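I would like you to help me understand the sequence and structure tokens below and explain how sequence relates to structure.
___
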Amino acid sequence: STRKESSAASDVYKRQGKLPLPTQGKILYRFGSTQSNGQLKRNGIFIKNRMGAKVVSVHHGRVIFSDYLRGHGLLLILDHGNGYMSLYGHNQTLQKEIGDWVGTGDTIATVGNTGGRQQVGLYFEIRHQGRPQNPHPWLKG
């Protein structure tokens, strides 16, 4: 089953505009907006939600990071193949471990504010070859 899942994972680039939101809620800031210090542009989006709400995988993939990372709090990273990854940060809990395979829409974490966030919500990024992509064109709605 692993081979089938990894070939499905490589199709993420065909799914632009079809990926589910990783959590329900209002997008508080968008990709490329300036952070409070005015220096850095944001590499992802922040979706406000309540503490403990579920976070789901936007596409099939394999967990390559599931731990605390300074600046991101409890962070989970999925590898979708072909150089595509999705990152889910500031979680309250992580529900998958490194090496786990997940399907689209599987619960992978719960919303929190770990890593020094004032607001409760999910930080979400899509990367290709390590470079942050604007997630808006990828997500439904």
